[in-house]
Amino acid sequence: MKHGFLRVAAATPVIRVADCEYNTGKIIELIDKAKADGNKLVVFPELCITGYTCGDLFLQDTLLKGAITAVKQIANYTDGKDILVVVGFPYIVKGKLYNTAAVICNGKVLGLVPKMSIPNYTEFYEARHFTSGIADPILINFLGEEIYFGSHILFQCSDMPEFILGVETCEDLWIPKSPSIEHCIAGATVIANLSASDELTGKDAYRRELVKSQSARLVCGYIYSDAGEGESTTDVVYGGHNLIAENGMLLAESVIFENGIISSAIDLGKLKSERRRMHTYLGQNTVPYQVIPFTLGENGEDLPELELTRFIDPAPFVPSVKAERDKRCRDIISIQAMGLKTRLAHTGIKNVVVGISGGLDSTLALLVTVKAFEMLGLDKKGIYAITMPCFGTTDRTYNNAILMAQSLGVTLLEVPIREAVELHFRDIGHDKNVHDLTFENSQARERTQVLMDIAGKQKGFVVGTGDMSELALGWATYNGDHMSMYGVNASVPKTLVRYLVSYFADTTEDQRLREVLMDVLDTPVSPELLPPKDGEIAQKTEDIVGPYELHDFFLYYVLRFGFEPSKVYRLAKHAFRGSYEDQVILKWLKTFYRRFFTQQFKRSCLPDGPKVGSVAVSPRGDLRMPSDASSALWMKELESL
Question: Could you list the active site residues?
Fold first, then answer.
């Protein structure tokens, strides 16, 4: 429960139609299993106490009384177990029979929620027995207690206030205006759906997408519990297709035709963060709701840390499935190229300048620029690829830059800057043998001056090469490689840059270009500002600021969701277990926060560049942050870990 994680379950018991006593025993068995697995919420199918397929037996007093007795038995059994149980049964209110969900916790029935949409078409004939539920809650006497009955009821956990449950039943999800819409607008973060959805060819795929889509549009956790084996197969068959989704992501799914239980941890903190960012989420007035508090017996100040069983992707910016990754690469490259194409068309400029080093970022920028020129039908000779060797340039990167420009058919210019930088050192009184920040930044600024002046000479502009990961860490020389007229890589994280270049290598028909790109991919990331050692790159960026795969992971969860350092650290430990030791992750997480806060001034004056994903650092878009903000609170929490 710590950090907003809530472990939930969807359970389908093997039942006997109309045998409430037998069914209660099976439900209790699954409650025990859910509790033993650490779940705090378990949802059962629609009418599972009696069975959904009782037909006209729903008109029998004996069955209805047996169902009430069963609810009482289940409630008594939960006493002291600190688990929320949602179970379906038929119940009469004011002479009308309702398809009802009982919400139970610690020996008490907290409230009853009726099904609102009663299907009466094709194989369904619920209207023969049941009445559509009422929305506005009314007080009724149930098992000697006054409780609320109605659809507009939410159940809020006092130990974990972000856990707010809303309930709907089966058909309620399949209609245009689902009750869960109002539930979530009113504050529900988790929806329980008690269902009895029969199996038809292809229906499982539709059901899966429906649940995922509903959880996405409502930014909620969605638990769908389906009737299964034991229901009557007189005319239809039930598969027990249980699903747990979170904001469009499927967390768990049962095997159809195998009754049992599935569970997963829903990240309520993530949902809360998403809703906080979407100021339009609660844009409409909602109807009044009755909020019923309950407790799960935890200390709200010191919630237990659940074992994370869900998958935490160590590369959140990069799809793991190749087909999805290739599509992502195509889309991003198209966005980058379209942004540059529009800027070129608007200005009427037909010449651009790109500084190429033989590294990943400048390679991607050059490839995108070529694509933009192709889209406009411009002569690629108008692309001036400038290589500017200096103290740290190695033969490997130099040769790759040359071969790449030649393969792409752009104009290649070589402007050595060693002499100019050494003259600058003499002018400012700097010893060239002192390899400090001045030594490095002087080269970066000289290269930018060269690019800007050639752009002016050719009546063009400079295309920037720096990526988002570098901008987040401030790993750029202010008014050096930090500056351009249009930064095509400005919102592309370093981990994704690699795959974009790889995609170009995989799809090009030019064998020589493919070989060059593959060697670029195999080259260590480096600004190449320090002299080589034995002809090899001496300055490796990730040795200095840390692994980019860690920093991109931190960047995603810090900016996308605003998580606190302790939660980011916890997620990183889970995602990178076996790859990095905990103390290594913590070391670089401290580096990330320190650099992220101190380097905002570089992001405050970024050149234009297209946003390609859900995270960006442009001061005109996603990140409006003061340059002098204090990191004290974040660093204090990091020191306590």
Answer: 46, 115, 170
